[in-house]
Structures are given as structure tokens and as C-alpha cells.
Write a structure and sequence with these properties.
The complex is a heterodimer of chains A (128) and B (442). Chain A is an alpha/beta fold and 128 residues long. Chain A is 42% helix and 20% strand. Chain A contains 6 helices and 5 strands; from the N terminus they run E-H-E-H-E-H-H-E-H-E-H. Chain B is built from 10 helices and 7 strands. In chain B, the strands form 2 sheets. Chain B has a 5-stranded mixed sheet with strand order 2-4-5-7-6. Chain B has a two-stranded antiparallel ribbon with strand order 1-3. Chain B is elongated. Chain B is α+β, with helices and mostly antiparallel strands and 442 residues long. The chains are: A alpha/beta (128), B alpha+beta (442). Chains A and B meet through helix 1 of A and helix 6 and helix 7 of B.
């Protein structure tokens, strides 16, 4: 894990039905100096992203009520353009091509490697 | 041979024995005996013996166990017997009264032989042929010798009797054939249902395994994510402290290693069970780049500390229709196996060579290493899932099995060869397109 960078605070939304995972991700991302928000299903994520303040979404694929895939499909294309969406999954049966078609920028399998995730977010931040 | 054909063969054989026996016996009796009573007794004994032998033979045949067709066959038999009895009776008791000359007798005999031959070669028309011959011969002879005599009466009766038999026999034969064909159809249906049931059960089991593996992977990977991330947080927080003295750094490294191993196990299990059920998307990929990526992955992973890695391939670009992710996965498993075959970290001696070439419509990718090798007696088993020679806890034995499964999904093959004490895994993949217009990337 790298030391916290000193540039702009990114606003990251963590969407996962597992509270422990949300907490762990929140901890590791906040150490980096990024702002985080947490919700546990796709519907809540749609509501949070509406105000246009989210830079990156880290979302699980399989969730109750509204899955990560449904969330991507329902998300406003304009918002999708502005955000970077990282999909995470503990299952290996996801269709990578299909997820990328609906707007996912990156797919990471669980268990997550924190350093990989941070490196990726850093690369996204450099582009912004 | 179907059941119907076997049963029909038995029927043909036994009825032929009886017919030939009856014919020979009748002819022999006619010439050998003089007294009519004696004729009758010997004739009865011969006929009864012939039919008893055939009946016993019949009962010991396989058909006995089959009750329904046996009833039909018995009826069929009864009709043949009636025909044979009638013919024998006419030959024995009526022919002497007709004062036939030797030519006529030869005609009768030739007719008997002809009908027997026809029985052998035209089994399906047995009844019709034999009955026509049996009826027409004495009938014609009767007309020739003494019209309006007893022979006329007897021949007339025979015609009526035989016509009835022919109609009955044909009906019975039709029933017999349709019954057996129906039975055959039912049997094949039962077999088809059984085979499909087995397939359905196997598929259900397979689906259940996929679900279990997938569910297990999910249940393990989620808490493992929490553990892995908190571990990195701990590592980060301890960085400012002098934890080397406390030995905590070793504990963290050990936990990280274990997390990584659990992750590898769940990943492989999940991949192994789900790879066969997932649909794979194929597209044209640059093989040179794909192999180079794998090479870079291993170079970074080993840090150039375990073995020398080398790539050998053509300078022109090769486009391969494949699933990049899957093929990369297979290559990683094979190369990982090669790297794990080295017992020491001797980078001068240890060599792993990845070579590839295009030959007509086939792409060959070879992974060669000079590691400890694979003993000959296990070469047949190495592709089996969960087969491993590694120590307990060092591997699940799924790598080669997964690689093999991926390559088969690409309509290719994976073969193991031992060349000059070097282990060579050769992948053969079908390819239909080659592009030479672009420069090499390697």
C-alpha cells in the first residue's frame, strides 16, 4: 500500500451488501485521503450518484434488490461518462464483455488486493 | 442383431428342421412299409417325434421367457404342423392309390426339396411357399390320374383348408412382426429414456457441483477480502513502528501468504467447476502479444530469480481466434508448473522456453523446461483433476486439468513429451487466418 497522495480528494462510492467489506474498503481508501460513501444495493447507489458528486464507484455484482449489473444499466449515461466504475465479485461467472458494454471500467475479483485497487484509483486520478 | 431378428431366426430354424424331417420320414415310410396300419403307426411316431424334438428345442430357446410373442409363435407352429400333416397324409395314403409312375414320384420329391430350399432362403414367405407347394402337388396329380375320384375330394378339401391356413398364417405373421417391431420400438424408447435420465442426473450433479463451488468461493472470498484489506491496513499502520523487533512483520507476511493461498484455491476450484458451464467468446487475438504478456507476468512474478525464461517464435504477427483470458490462464498454469519443477533457484541451469510456430492451419505452442521431470508411470494421470505430486498444501492438482480443459474448449490438444530429459508440453490449436502484413511486436 502506498502513502496517501496529496492531490484532490476523490469521492468514492462503495456499493456492497457485505458490511464488513464496505468497512474495510472505507478504511483503506480513507487512509489514502479519499472521501468515501457506502450503500448496500444498486437502488441506493442510483440515488447517491444522482447529485453528480461521485468520481468513482466500486460496486459488487451480486447484491439483493438491485444488482451491480442492474445499477449499471439504470445509471444515466451522462453520469456514466463522468464516473469510473470498478466492479468487484466473489463469483467467477460474470460476463466481462457484457459488463464493459454497460459501462464498467474495471473488473476485480474478490478477494481484493488493496494495493491493486489503490494503484488503479491513482491511475484514474491522474487522468482526471 | 435385434431381439426380433434373433427370435425370427429361431423360428425359421426349428420349423425348417420339422419340415425336412417330416418330408424325409414320409417318403421313407412310403417306400419302406407295405401295411396301411403299420404305415399309420410309423407315420404317427415320426411326426410326433419330429414335433417333440422341435418343441423341446423351442422351449429351451431364449424365446420361452417371452410370453406374449410365444403365444403367437405357438399358433404359427400349429398352422405349420397342420400343413405338414396334411401333406404327409396325402403323400402316404393317397399317392399309392393313384398308381403314379416313377416320374411323378420324382416330381413329388423335387417339389418337397424345392419347398425346403425356399424355406431356407425365403423365411419371411415360408408359410405361403410351403402351403402352395403342399397343396398344388397332390391336387394336380389327383386331376391327372382320376378325376371325380377320392383324390379330387381330398385335394378340394386341402385347397379350402390350406387357403384358410394361408390367410390365418399371414395374419398371424403380420401380428407377429408388428408386435415385435412395437416391442423393439418400446425397448429402444425405454433405453433412450434410461440414457436421457442418466444424462439428466449427471447434468444435475454437475450443475450442483458448479453451484456448490461457486457458492463456496463466494462465501470464502467475501470474508477473505475483509481479511486481506485489513491486513494491508495493519501493515500500513505498523510501518511507522519498529515492528521487526516484535516479529509482527513475519506474522503479517505469513497471514498474507495464507490469504493468497486460500484465494488461489477458491479461484481454481471455482474456475474448474464453472469453466465447462460458461459460454466462451472467441475473437482474433495477437498470439505474439499474448505470449509476451505471459512472459512479462512470469518475469515479474519470479523476479528472474528462479529460472531463465525465453521466448522463441516467428517474426511475423500471428492472429489466433481464441479467448485471450482463457488461453492466458492455460499458459500461466503450464508455465507455473514448469517453474515449480525446479528444486533449486539456479538461474544458470534452470530454463523455461516458450516457443510457438504456425504450421499450415495449426498453431503449436511448446513449454519446455529442464526441471525434475515427470515420472513415466504418472504421465497418464497428470491431466486428471486433483492429481498432484506436490506436498500436501502446496497445490490442488487442478492446474494441468484446467489448462487441458481450456485448450479442448478451443478445439485443440495438450500433449506431454519427454525430450532429452526435458519436459515438453505442446499445445496444438487450429487456426485459419494468418496476417503477415504487420511488423513483429516481439
Amino acid at each position: 500500500m502506498t502513502n496517501p497522495p496529496s492531490h484532490k480528494k476523490l469521492n468514492i462510492l462503495i456499493v456492497d451488501d457485505e458490511e464488513e467489506i464496505c468497512f474495510a474498503l472505507q478504511e483503506i481508501l480513507e487512509i489514502q485521503g479519499w472521501q468515501t460513501q457506502v450503500c448496500h444495493n444498486g437502488f441506493d447507489a442510483l440515488a447517491i450518484t444522482k447529485d453528480n458528486s461521485v468520481d468513482i464507484v466500486i460496486s459488487d455484482i451480486r447484491m439483493p434488490k438491485c444488482t451491480g449489473y442492474d445499477f449499471l444499466e439504470k445509471l444515466d449515461p451522462e453520469l456514466k461518462e463522468k464516473m469510473d466504475i470498478v466492479m468487484i465479485s466473489a463469483y467467477s461467472d460474470y460476463d466481462e464483455e457484457q459488463l464493459k458494454k454497460v459501462g464498467a471500467s474495471k473488473l476485480l475479483p474478490k478477494p481484493l488486493n488493496g494495493s491493486h485497487l489503490i494503484n488503479y484509483i491513482n491511475s484514474v486520478q491522474l487522468k482526471k | 442383431m435385434s431381439n426380433y431378428e434373433i427370435e425370427k431366426q429361431y423360428l425359421d430354424m426349428t420349423s425348417t428342421i420339422v419340415f425336412i424331417g417330416g418330408t424325409i420320414a414320409s417318403t421313407f415310410i412310403y417306400f419302406a412299409t407295405k401295411s396301411e396300419i403299420e404305415n399309420l403307426i410309423v407315420w404317427l411316431i415320426t411326426i410326433i417325434s419330429c414335433y417333440t424334438i422341435a418343441f423341446v428345442y423351442w422351449n429351451y430357446s431364449k424365446i420361452k421367457s417371452n410370453k406374449d410373442p410365444a403365444t403367437i409363435i405357438t399358433t404359427y407352429w400349429f398352422l405349420i404342423a397342420c400343413c405338414d400333416l396334411n401333406w404327409s397324409y396325402i403323400t402316404m395314403f393317397h399317392l399309392p392309390k393313384l398308381n403314379l409312375d416313377s416320374v411323378a414320384l420324382i416330381c413329388v420329391f423335387v417339389c418337397g426339396i424345392s419347398s425346403t430350399i425356399m424355406l431356407l432362403y425365403l423365411p419371411a414367405r415360408r408359410m405361403t411357399n410351403s402351403l402352395i407347394l403342399c397343396t398344388t402337388v397332390p391336387f394336380s396329380l389327383g386331376i391327372l390320374n382320376s378325376p371325380f375320384s377320392f383324390s379330387w375330394y381330398l385335394a378340394g378339401l386341402t385347397v379350402i383348408y390350406t387357403t384358410t391356413i394361408i390367410i390365418c398364417a399371414n395374419t398371424v405373421q403380420k401380428i407377429y412382426i408388428s408386435e415385435f417391431k412395437e416391442k423393439e420400438k418400446n425397448l429402444s424408447l425405454v433405453e433412450e429414456i434410461q440414457s436421457k435420465t442418466i444424462d439428466v442426473i449427471a447434468n444435475a450433479k454437475s450443475t450442483m457441483l458448479v453451484d456448490i463451488a461457486s457458492g463456496m468461493a463466494h462465501e470464502i472470498n467475501n470474508p477473505l477480502t475483509t481479511v486481506a484489506i485489513h491486513l494491508e491496513i495493519l501493515e500500513h499502520k505498523f510501518k511507522s513502528l519498529d515492528i521487526e523487533k516484535t516479529g509482527l512483520n513475519k506474522s503479517i507476511a505469513s497471514i498474507k501468504k495464507s490469504v493468497s493461498r486460500i484465494s488461489e484455491i477458491t479461484g481454481n476450484l471455482s474456475y474448474f467447476f464453472s469453466s465447462s458451464s460458461n459460454e466462451i467468446h472467441f475473437q482474433k487475438e495477437d498470439l505474439n502479444a499474448l505470449i509476451k504478456d505471459v512472459y512479462v507476468y512470469f518475469y515479474r512474478k519470479t523476479g528472474g530469480q528462479i529460472a531463465q525464461l525465453a521466448i522463441e517464435g516467428p517474426s511475423e504477427k500471428i492472429l489466433l481466434t481464441c479467448n485471450k483470458k482463457e488461453l492466458t490462464h492455460a499458459l500461466k498454469h503450464l508455465i507455473n508448473n514448469s517453474i515449480e519443477a525446479f528444486e533449486t533457484n539456479d538461474t544458470i541451469r534452470n530454463q523455461v522456453q516458450i516457443s510457438y510456430r504456425l504450421d499450415k492451419e495449426t498453431i503449436y505452442i511448446c513449454i519446455k523446461d529442464n526441471g525434475k521431470g515427470i515420472p513415466k508411470h504418472i504421465t497418464d494421470q497428470i491431466m486428471h483433476p486433483f492429481f498432484t505430486t506436490k506436498e500436501v498444501g502446496k497445490g490442488l492438482g487442478l492446474g494441468l486439468s484446467i489448462a487441458n480443459s481450456i485448450i479442448r474448449n478451443h478445439n485443440g490438444s495438450l500433449k506431454l513429451n519427454i525430450e532429452n530429459q526435458k519436459t515438453v508440453f505442446t499445445i496444438q490449436l487450429p487456426n485459419k487466418e494468418r496476417h503477415n502484413d504487420q511488423p513483429s511486436i516481439s
